[in-house]
Structures are given as C-alpha cells and as structure tokens.
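The material for today's practical consists of a large collection of protein records. There is nothing in a record beyond a sequence line and a structure line. Backbone structure tokens are a discrete shorthand for how the chain folds in space. Nothing more is needed to start thinking about how sequence determines fold. As an example, a complete record with its sequence and its structure tokens follows.
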Amino acid sequence: MKKKIPYLLALVVLVFYGLHQDFWFWNQADPLILGFIPIGLFYHALYSIAVAGLMWVLVRYCWPGHLEKAAVNPESPSSTRSEKPTAS
C-alpha cells in the first residue's frame, strides 16, 4: 500500500490541476457569496486552501528524507573527501 501512495497523490495533483482551470465561472459574477464575494473569487479562495492541504500531504508522505539525511551527515562510507583541515 505504501508504494501506491505516490501514484495516488500524483493522480490527485492532476485532478487539482484540472480543477484550477475553472472555465465554468469565467463569465459569471453571480451569485455573490456573503453578499459581496464573486463566485469565482470564492472558488479560488477555497481552491487555495485545498491546495495548501494537498501540499502538506505531499510533503508529509512524499518528501525525500534520504536526501536530508545525506545533507546532515555528509561523511558517509562512499565519501571521497579528505579530512577537515585543522586550524593552526
């Protein structure tokens, strides 16, 4: 199941990409939400919140942690760097 999560999230990203193209509200200002917010602006506000949540999920489940471990601990067995110079 864990190997399917990145593919599922990639599909969700494609769905969100499609939802971003909100052609159904392009020529429409009515109805006004709360009496003053055009429907297209309200849609994009909700969309932005949803995308922020999606980005949190992507970072939580698909972040390449092995790259951070390599950056924190650069002295690995495969490292070819010499010893750090000492101050004299």
User: Anything to note?
Assistant: Strands lie at 32-33, 37-38.
